[in-house]
Design brief:
This protein is mainly alpha-helical. The chain has one domain.
Length: 140
C-alpha cells in the first residue's frame, strides 16, 4: 500500500500548485453564471420571490444579491492572482459574501431541504462549503 501511495504522490505532485485553482475557478465561475441570469437589474423572478416572502425593499435586495454573486465570483478568481495581503483579503471577503448569499438561499428558497436531506445532494451545499473554505483559508 505504501508503494501505491508513493506512486500516487509522484503522479499528482506536478499538479499540487494548481489544486486550489481548480476549486477557485469552479466556485468563481458558478457564482458568476448564477448572477448572469439575474441581469438586467432588478431581477424580476428574485424580486417577486422577495415580495412573496415580505422582504423589505425587494428590488434593492434582489439587485444586491445579483451584484454580490457577480462581484464575489470575480473576487474569488482575481484574489488568487494577487500575492499580497490584498489578494488574501479579497479572497476571504469574497468567500464570506458567498457564505452569506448561500445562507440566504437556504433560509428562503431551499428551507425544506434541511428536513428532507436534499441539501447534501445539490450543488448549493458545495457552493456554501467552498465559500466557507476560502473565507477561512484565504490565499494561504
Amino acid at each position: 500500500m505504501n508503494k501505491f501511495s508513493n506512486f500516487l504522490d509522484r503522479v499528482s505532485s506536478p499538479f499540487i500548485s494548481i489544486s486550489n485553482w481548480l476549486l477557485r475557478l469552479s466556485l468563481g465561475m458558478a457564482f458568476i453564471l448564477h448572477s448572469y441570469g439575474k441581469f438586467p437589474l432588478p431581477p424580476e423572478r428574485l424580486t417577486s420571490g422577495f415580495e412573496f416572502w415580505s422582504i423589505p425593499f425587494p428590488e434593492v435586495i434582489s439587485s444586491l444579491v445579483a451584484l454580490g454573486e457577480l462581484i464575489s465570483g470575480i473576487g474569488i478568481i482575481v484574489g488568487g492572482f494577487i500575492s499580497s495581503s490584498l489578494g488574501n483579503v479579497i479572497t476571504r471577503l469574497s468567500g464570506g459574501a458567498m457564505v452569506v448569499i448561500m445562507i440566504g438561499a437556504f433560509s428562503l428558497v431551499h428551507r425544506d431541504w434541511f428536513v428532507s436531506g436534499k441539501i447534501f445532494t445539490t450543488e448549493q451545499f458545495f457552493l456554501f462549503v467552498l465559500g466557507l473554505f476560502f473565507m477561512i483559508k484565504g490565499n494561504k
